[in-house]
Amino acid sequence: MIKLLLKLHPIISVLLIGSLFSRIANSMSLPFLAIYLAKQTDLTPLMIGVVIGAAPLASTLSGILGGYLSDKFGRKQIMLLSIYSWGFVFIGFALAKDPIIFLLLSILNGICKAFFEPVSQALMGDLTEQKLRAKVFSLRYTVINAGVAIGPLLGVFIGLSSSGIGFMITGLFYFVYSIVLHLFTSKVSIPVQKNKTVYSMKQSLIIIKRDKVLMYFILGACITQIGFAQFAPLSHHMSTTFEKGVIYFGWMMTTNALVVVLAQLPLSSIFERFSTITGVYVGNGLYAIGGLGFAFSNSLTEMILSMIIFTLGEVLCFPAGTILIDNLAPDHLRGSYYGAMNFTELGRFLGPTLGMFLYSTLNISWLFSIIFILLLVSNCIYMVGNRLWEKQSKQDSLSEENPLTPYNKIGTV
């Protein structure tokens, strides 16, 4: 890992370290938002799901704009604007009392994430040579989950207090991170992209819309996100089913992060011999099995075993999905392509909303049985997109060998 860091641009090291500590702060508050809202407001479980789901819905609608603006005006400006704003959002969560204010803050949280996350990933792609990108994205995912391993335990003690101190600490940390990133990017030069072609927002949307492979991958990832975004109903189930449910849920979230940290490198080494899409297929399958485990577990031990299976799916799905998009994206539109992937955040909106509805009207068993079916559907959609990509790749190869063969038009204006 140290050898890899020495090969990387200094900005990437700052982003990796920032990702570690920001997730410590973030995960000691946001995973408990459903419980926090239940204590602070009179919202029903369904409305709590809507408030939580508003963040990914906002990400869905604003993500491509953030990616496009970063392609046109530069990664630095968009990153700094979003992360400074993010600090105010968390301070707002700590001080808010009105449900409408919580809803607005959730929307702003989604917008900040939609601007910062894809833009920072695009910048990491810009500053990393092709052969090292898979390792960089896997390392980013590992350090993020190292932070998440610590955050929930802190949240158990301070994130659920009536004063909202967990959100306050998270907001203050984001201010510190903003200042450090601002100072560092001012002193260290960021290379300008070699391809200076700049498209209008309309042209970028046309290009993305024409890329049918991207559309299939977005749809598949969106459904996968529905399956992943069930922590709100799961936390509600834990808090009402087990005597120490809140503490148990904190341990489960920590288990989730620890498994990512411990399993990331071994699983990455194992699956290097397979195609990237294989990681998505297997990951979705493990998500499905782990979800069924949640539905039928009656003890903390069974819940943790289910979380381990569920998390192994996460270890495979998330980095593989990032690599798929990075391989698919043209260099001059990488920000826009990462921004387009924010449409998958629609799944994170539908996930808690649908999950809380099914949980409150049916039960936890029905919820995760339906999720099981949806994840199998996601694999089918990914399979269709991958076959189309393979077909297009063969056509591109023939076009290069035979100049008289028409070129594939995907990715062109």
From TrEMBL:
Q: How does it sit in the membrane?
A: Multi-pass membrane protein
Keyword annotations: Cell membrane, Membrane, Transmembrane, Transmembrane helix, Transport
Q: Report the subcellular localization.
A: Cell membrane
Q: Which InterPro entries match?
A: MFS (IPR011701), MFS_dom (IPR020846), MFS_trans_sf (IPR036259), Sugar_transporter_CS (IPR005829)
- Span of domain Major facilitator superfamily (MFS) profile: 11-387
Q: Which residues cross the membrane?
A: 12-37, 43-66, 78-94, 100-116, 137-160, 172-192, 246-267, 279-297, 303-325, 364-385
| Name this protein carries in UniProt | MFS transporter
Q: Where does this protein come from, organism-wise?
A: Litchfieldia luteola
